[in-house]
Each structure stands twice: as structure tokens, then as C-alpha cells.
Amino acid sequence: MEPSCVVMQDISSAWLQLHGLQDWVGLLDPLDPTLRVEILKYGRFSEATYDAYDPSCGSSCRYRCASLLKEVGLRDSGYEVTRYLYATMAELPRPPWPLSLLPKGSWLQRLLRLDSWSEDSNWMGFVAVSGDEETRRLGRREIVVAWRGTVEPSEWFKDAQLGMEPLKGGGVSGANVEQGFQSVYTSHGRFTTLSASEQVKTEIRRLVDTYGKEDSWKEGISLTLTGHSLGGALALLSAHDAAASIPGLSHVSVISFGAPQVGDAAFMEELSKKGVKVLRVVVKGDEVPKLPGIIDSLYEHAGVKLDLDMDEEDLMGQLDVAACHSLKTYLRLVESTKS
User: Family assignment (predicted)?
Assistant: First the structure.
């Protein structure tokens, strides 16, 4: 990754618009150049979760909290990582058909690999907070939660158990979400005495308490969650969780990349009631955002979609599912989208 030297314009007067106050009306087609810069910022936080992940040991990160952003080329991002997040993998179902029946080397065979997760815990991302200079630029203190997506194209799919269950927490009645995603978010394991849900909420509360006492910013403390693929699903679940249970947040938004569907219409309504704003960045031709809805029509997407077009030239002749779903493809297309 190229080092990021971020010296950007003051956006304090436009921040709420850029984070969906009016659902991004007038900002997406064509893509507003200031919004493009902000989308890329969160996309690079998502990318950092891949760059920092240690593939030889799913429960660890390559770097210490204090040096992570520096090591992945985001030294000048204006944020400080304050906590790492881990998730537990529950027992996962195997597909009802032999993998040997699929064409060897096909994208679906790669998608259904069952050997890529640790059974106990996986390093899944981090919580960060804006420093004083970035806070002045934004006009508010911002907490960012970045969730890791799939190291293999299949990691989210094998946890998508293709069935809904009631949304946990917050006294919600009638809302249902994908049971596999919720399991990743709420399960405990041998090495994770706190679930991912408990970890992220504990840290957000700590930061709200700390900066709520120290800061004099009239716009308060905002929360932005980001992630790619499975990370986008976890971002949506944790956005609702935080908005429903943590007072003191002035605004909660999600900027996701290639995220699958997470819940039903009642869950989408819950997000709206809680004031959570969602911008989904989606590459046309990426199959992951269509799932699990192509199997179960009860699933719906939240928020507003930013479509990105990709042709054979963009793909350098590799027109396949993996290329369409790659976060690097997403970020390249955001960068090249015409204003």
C-alpha cells in the first residue's frame, strides 16, 4: 500500500451531508469529489484490516495498536487505534453437496472452502478515534470501527447459514438477521471471553465517556463503521447495536464495500428508527451483495447504494467473481469515478 499523506480540506460544515443527513441526495451521480475522498478514507481503514491480518494465525494482528496505522501506510490518517476486535467462529455447516461435484478451481469451489477460519477466535479489526487535528477538520470527534472482511472469498459465506433468527439485544421485537453473521458477532470462545459485540460496545462507551468530558465540540462525538464483505455485515450489526445502546453519540453511519444482505425489512426499519445512515458501495457484477437474497427473498439491503461500473479493461481481462469482489478493485474504481 502506498503511504497515505492526508492533508485534506476542512469539511466541518459539510460533514453531516457527507455522512447521509439527507441520504446522499445529489452527491452520488456524479460522485461528489469531497465525498470520494471520504469514502476512500474509510476504504483504506477497511484495507488496513487485511494488511495487518496475520494469515498464519487467525487470532492475531501483525502489529501493535500503537503502530498499526503507521505500518500499513496510514501514518498521517489523523486517527489513533485504541482497541483490537476479535470474533469467535461457531460450528459451521457444510454444504449439502460434495465439493467434488463442482468444477475444479471454479469460483464457487473457492467460495466454499471450509478450512480458512480458526475455530476459536479471529482478529477482525479495530476501533480508532480522531486526533485533535482531524477532529478540527471534521468539526467533531469521530470514532471509527473497521471490521475485517474475507481473506478467502468464502469466509463470510461459510458463516452465512442461510437462515434468519431474531435480532439479539436492544429489546427489538420482530426484526430478524442472518444467523451466521449474528453468530460471528455475538459468540464467545476459549480465547474471547467477550463477544465481538461486547468488545466494540465497551470501547465505544469508554471513548464516549472520555471525550464527552474532555471535548467542547458542539457537534459531539460521531461513530462511523466500515468494512468489506463480511466486514460490511458486521459494521451494520454493530451500528445498530451502538445506536440502540450507547447514549452520547451524535451521529452513526456505515460506509461499506461489497457487503452482503444482513436482515429483513423489520431490521432495516430498526436501523432507520435509530437514525443509522448507510452508504453501500457496490461494484456491478459483484455477486456477494446479492446474497443471501437470491436464495431467500426476505432479505433486504439497508441504506443508499453507490454503484461502480467495471468493464473488461478495468479487470485486465479477468472478468470473474473474485476480481469483482476484491476491495482493491473497489478502491480503484472509487478513485477513477468521474465527478
Answer: Belongs to the AB hydrolase superfamily. Lipase family.
